[in-house]
Amino acid sequence: MTQSNGYGVVGHVGYNASTTPDHNAADEEQPLLNGVVGQRHNAKSFTTRIRKAAKDEVKRESAELMLILCYIITGLLDSSSISIWGSFVSMQTGNTVYIGLGLSAPSESTRWIKSVTSLGCFCIGSVFFSHFHRYFGPKRRGTLIASFLIQAVLCVVAASMVTLGPGGYGKDEIAWDVLLPISIVAFQACGQAVTSRALGYSAFTSVVLTSIYCDLFSDAQLFQLDNPDRNRRLGAPVMLLVGAVLGGVFARSSIGIAAALWAATVLKLVIVLIWAVWPSEKREEESDD
Which residues cross the membrane (predicted)? Predict the structure, then answer.
């Protein structure tokens, strides 16, 4: 039944005014909802791609170039540390000799104490980084990035301690702000050596050169123009020499070893960025296609 009012005829249950407005509201909200859903989908897709890239194994081909680049860092740190602290932080062969000399005449010098500290922390670091690579995957991009990020952070910590500390110590002086930076830098230094094992380039440890010199000059094709192996072996001592020169310059500057540590930090971060864009190995399912 209908009833009349002064403005026309109205149904018994009243006019359902919500039908059309609700439809219009839904139409107006739909583009906004589509935008939100699209943004969430894009964010999820981006996160998925990042996770996939982190789990991918880096392409081994030419990866030894990264290890050769690490020789610059070794030269930087060892030349400056031996000049300022009287101890190596990467090349533990020299520290072993210093330890032997110290044990033969322990009262003549205290440098062997620094060498023991460096060698001990290097060994502990080897245990840490080797387990780290085995647990997360030795050649995974995420593992390599995280490894060098850890090394960079440790270099920052050591550099900050040296920069803010009193300094001015001689080679034979023992102080906490000398032993602790030595410990930290030696701990992170073996991360490079472990990376060489993870990538399958054991010859390019980035911390020693003796075996490379042997392989280089025993090469039957040493003087052949087209010899990539010789070129790579030659690059290692050249890079270490460049780093050693720079480290010596820093050690004699007003900033001292702190400059070498900050420079090593920058180089570690550059390596992190390179690993982030390094080509990946093809997955089995991709190669089957």
Answer: 65-88, 112-132, 144-162, 234-251, 258-278
Q: How far is CA 268 from the centre of its chain?
A: 5
Cα–Cα distance, 242 to 238 (Å, whole number) = 6
For residues 71 and 32, state if they share a domain: no
Instruction: State the amino acid at position 159 in one-letter form.
Output: A
Residue from 278, 271, 87 nearest 172 by CA:
87
Name beta bridge partners: 154: none
How many of the other CB atoms lie within 10 Å of CB of 49? 10
Under DSSP, the state recorded for 218 is T
CATH number of the domain within which 82 lies: 1.20.1250
Q: Let me know how long the chain is.
A: 289
* pLDDT tens-place string over residues 220-250: 999 998 998 999 999 999 999 999 999 999 9
Residues 274, 262 share a domain: yes
Separation of alpha carbons 197 and 189, rounded Å:
14
- Do 71 and 206 touch, CB atoms closer than 8 A? yes
**Pair 26, 111 in one domain:** no
Alpha helices (H) along 165-256: 176-199, 210-217, 228-251
Q: Give a yes or no: residue 216 inside a domain.
A: yes
Question: Which residue in the block uniquely carries the two structure tokens 């996770």?
Answer: 51
pTM of the model: 0.81
The pair of three-digit structure tokens given for residue 149, joined into one six-digit string = 């990020």
pLDDT in tens, 182-225: 999 999 999 999 999 999 998 899 888 999 999 999 999 999 98
Pairwise CA distance, residues 139 & 3, whole Å: 82
End-to-end Cα, the chain, rounded Å: 72
